Structures are given as structure tokens and as C-alpha cells.
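#lab-general

N.A. 3:47 PM
ok so I finally got the sequence cleaned up, no stray characters, all 88 residues accounted for. can someone with queue access submit it? mine expired

B.Y. 3:52 PM
send it over

N.A. 3:53 PM
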Amino acid sequence: MKVEFRDRQGVFALVCQEICDALPYVEQGSIAGDISMRDLGANSLERMDVVVCSSHRLNIIVTADRLRDVDTIDGLVDVLWAAVQETA
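B.Y. 4:20 PM
back already:
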């Protein structure tokens, strides 16, 4: 599946895809922005895998400082999207 990263919605779709890759028991349709990856059952390594893989596919670097206050999937998408815009 080709994902476009021209907008926040594309970044959200990418994060959902990475979550499903890291957590095969999660269906993409069950992912909502207002929940956390912990709510989906992700441990710390799985959460970091989603962040690293998403950042790699977006060709961005996200520091730990920027991720410190992220507690929902929407929060992660906002951080990733901001980094994408900064590199554009």
C-alpha cells in the first residue's frame, strides 16, 4: 500500500500501518487517534519500533525531547508531521 506523506492524514495512515506491523493482533480500523499505543497492548520496545520505523519512512529525525510528552497516537502524529514540515 502506497502512503502519501503530503499531509497529516498520510502520516496518520503511516503510523497506523506501522502499529499493525508491530502489533499483528491489532486491526487498522480499530486504531483511533485519541488512544495510546499502550491501550493497544504495545510494550516499550514495540512503541519505539513504531516511532523508529515511521521516522525512517518519513526520512526525518525525531529527538527524545519531542516525544517526551506524547501520550496518544494523535500526539505522535503531530510530532512526526511537524518534523516533516520542518524538513520540507
